[in-house]
């Protein structure tokens, strides 16, 4: 990265928005995580793993693809999966197509746990986010976050109504 001669400081409005994003997102995810752990014994990270696996063919994904989809480091995901595996929610196996790869598969117990947690979690998402802002603000938030996710290589498209993802209606993530 080339050296900048003069920093492009944030103006007062940008600074307020930046700090609101930091505080608001930290508070939202802390509250959602608390609610999930209280209601289901799952962390938000574990819940997201189960959601991604539930949407995958055969409820199986390569660990590397799962890490990329969740925007987690491989070591962080491995730690989470190890804990979930000991709880019987997922299983790891060698990838048949590439012996170097590792697959993660949701077990029937993991799917049952996800099904039990989803109604409580979607209510928490509604209470803590969706019902607190207008539908237009929710759409705009989705568009903004999709722009940021593109940088992370997520492949998610902007939720602008043209390309709605039906899976989000099944299980809130």
Sequence-ordered SSE layout with sheet pairings:
Blueprint lengths: L11 H29 L3 H12 L4 E3 H8 L3 H13 L3 E5 L7 E5 L1 H21 L6 H17 L15 H4 L3
Antiparallel strand pairs: 1-3, 2-3
Protein architecture, described:
- The protein is mostly helical and 173 residues long.
- The chain has seven helices and three strands, in the order H-H-E-H-H-E-E-H-H-H.
- A three-stranded antiparallel sheet has the order 1-3-2.
- Strand 2 (90-94) and strand 3 form a beta hairpin.
- The protein is globular, with a radius of gyration of 18 Å.
Q: What is the helix fraction of residues, given as a range?
A: 55-70%
End-to-end Cα distance, whole Å, is 35 Å
Structural class: mainly alpha
Overall form = globular
Radius of gyration: 18 Å
Count of helix runs = 7
The number of E-state strands comes to 3
What is the helix/strand order?
A: HHEHHEEHHH
Low-confidence stretches: 153-171
Please, what is the average pLDDT? 88
How does the major sheet shape up?
Answer: 3 strands, antiparallel
Main β-sheet, spatial strand arrangement: 1-3-2
How much of the residues is beta strand, in percent? 5-15%
Keywords:
mainly alpha; 3-stranded antiparallel β-sheet; 7 helices; globular; disordered C terminus
Question: Would you summarize the structure shown here?
Answer:
The protein has 173 residues and is mainly alpha-helical. Helices cover 60% and strands 8% of the residues.
């Amino acid at each position: 990265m080339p050296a900048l001669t003069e920093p492009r400081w944030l103006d007062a409005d940008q600074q307020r928005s930046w700090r609101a994003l930091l505080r608001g997102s930290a508070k939202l995810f802390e509250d959602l995580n608390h609610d999930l752990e209280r209601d289901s014994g799952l962390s938000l990270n574990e819940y997201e793993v189960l959601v991604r696996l539930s949407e995958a063919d055969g409820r199986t994904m390569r660990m590397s693809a799962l890490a990329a989809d969740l925007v987690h480091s491989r070591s962080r995901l491995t730690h989470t999966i190890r804990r979930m595996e000991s709880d019987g929610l997922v299983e790891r196996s060698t990838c048949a197509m590439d012996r170097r790869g590792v697959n993660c598969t949701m077990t029937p117990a993991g799917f049952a746990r996800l099904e039990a947690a989803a109604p409580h979690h979607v209510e928490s998402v509604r209470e803590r986010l969706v019902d607190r802002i207008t539908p237009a603000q929710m759409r705009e938030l989705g568009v903004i976050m999709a722009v940021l996710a593109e940088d992370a290589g997520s492949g998610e498209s902007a939720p602008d109504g043209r390309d709605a993802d039906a899976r989000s209606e099944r299980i809130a993530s």
